[in-house]
Every structure is written in structure tokens, then in C-alpha cells.
Amino acid sequence: QQQVKQSPQSLIVQKGGISIINCAYENTAFDYFPWYQQFPGKGPALLIAIRPDVSEKKEGRFTISFNKSAKQFSLHIMDSQPGDSATYFCAASWTGNQFYFGTGTSLTVIP
Amino acid sequence: NAGVMQNPRHLVRRRGQEARLRCSPMKGHSHVYWYRQLPEEGLKFMVYLQKENIIDESGMPKERFSAEFPKEGPSILRIQQVVRGDSAAYFCASSPPSRANTGELFFGEGSRLTVL
After folding, report:
1. Residue A99 to residue B45, Cβ atoms within 8 A
2. Contact B3, B11 (CB under 8 A)
3. Please, are residues B41 and A103 in contact by the beta-carbon 8 Å criterion?
């Protein structure tokens, strides 16, 4: 049973374009929604995270949009760069419990 | 402040042998998580430990797999009698005692197990 569903599986974007990755969840107990970025051969690293008391969080070119009623959240990468090419994982958790990860999105930004 | 340290980074075992993967969490972190990642797949939760306690092992196969996080020393994920299907990258992550503030997991660079 996949607690967090992520789409698309892969994404190709032109340099300067907007990359959008979507995730959906079922468990309303989740209270923390991070996004992780993973480069080949490396471990995932936290990119940005949001809690359900806000609908949007922006850090530089990265924005999380959160829709509590729809139980969905998404990552937007503005002005995508070749250096953003990586695998992105959404996740969900609630305090004191494990993290549930999506299946990942492989992003390729074409120069 | 050193990050999460995993060793070995690469491990080759023959079928039937044992694999031991070690994880030293970040300084001050008392929570450790183990995840398995197969090619083209996401991170599959295996086990969540605190010092000397297994909190949640719902993702760990009932046979051949075990994990511990002793009072002193690293956390260890042990796979007995490995099979080819165990070939994967195993990631360890740690978090501080109180996740209420940041909720962040800090990952190591993984241990890549190959079973011949």
C-alpha cells in the first residue's frame, strides 16, 4: 500500500522552464511534507518542506503548494537549470513516526 | 559536524553469506531509520530505531533481516543468507531527539550491496 503517490515518474524540461511534480496522500494524520533531492550515487537531501498550516512555501526557485482539502502537494521548480537534474522524492510523516516516500521523479533539464 | 556515516559504501557478497551494514548517525541524533532503494524505485522503509529500541520494523522482512542500535556504537543492519534479490542500495537516515522542530531526516550516502 503506497501511502504517498507521486507523479510523473520522469520529467524532461527545457532550461528556464517550470518543473512540476505532484504528490497525493490519504492519511490525514500526516503533519510534515518534505521534498528530497537525490543525485546519482548520493543520499537524498532535504530540499524544502511544509506543514499543513500553510498553503505555500517558497525558497528561492523552489515552491511547495499544499492543498489540504484535496490531500495533495506539489513541487514547482522555477527557471529550471541543468544542475537541477536529479531524482525528487516527496514524503509525508507525522511526529514520532516513520517517513513515507513517494516513488520518485527523475527530472532532466535540457540545456 | 560530520554527517551520517555509512560503511561500507560498497559490499559484494555471494549467495548465502552475511552482510552487515553500519550507520553512525549525526552527533546528537538518537533516531535512526533504514531504507532500501532498488533501481528505478523509491525509498522503501525498513526499520526505525532509537537507542536500544526498535520503534517500528514493519517494513523489514521477517526472516534473515535484523537491525539494532546499541547504546554505544553504530546502528547495524544485518542480512543473513543473502540472496540476489537483496542487491540494492541501503540508506540510513538520522534525526534529532525532537522532530517537532524541524522534522528533517539526514541521509547517509548509502551502502550498495551486490549479491553474486
Report:
1. yes
2. no
3. yes
Decide if B107 and A96 are in contact by the 8 Å CB cutoff.
no
Contacts of A45 in chain B (CB under 8 A): 107
The stretches in chain A having pLDDT less than 70 are: 1, 95-96
Q: What is the mean pLDDT of chain B?
A: 91
Residues of chain A with C-beta less than 8 angstroms from the C-beta of B42: 6, 89, 101-104
Share of chain B above pLDDT 90, in %: 75
Q: Give the pLDDT score at B92.
A: 97
Please name which of A18, A32, A17, A35 lies closest in space to residue A76, comparing C-alpha atoms.
Answer: A18
Predicted pLDDT at A96 = 67
Burial of B14 from C-beta contacts in 10 A (0-12 / 13-18 / 19+): exposed
Chain A residues lying within 8 Å of B103, measured CB to CB: 32, 34, 49, 51, 93, 95
**Contact criterion met (CB below 8 Å) for B14 and B81:** no
Q: Does A98 touch chain B (CB under 8 A)?
A: yes
Does residue A43 contact residue B26 with C-beta atoms inside 8 Å?
no
> In chain A, what is the straight-line distance between the N-terminal and C-terminal CA atoms, in Å?
38
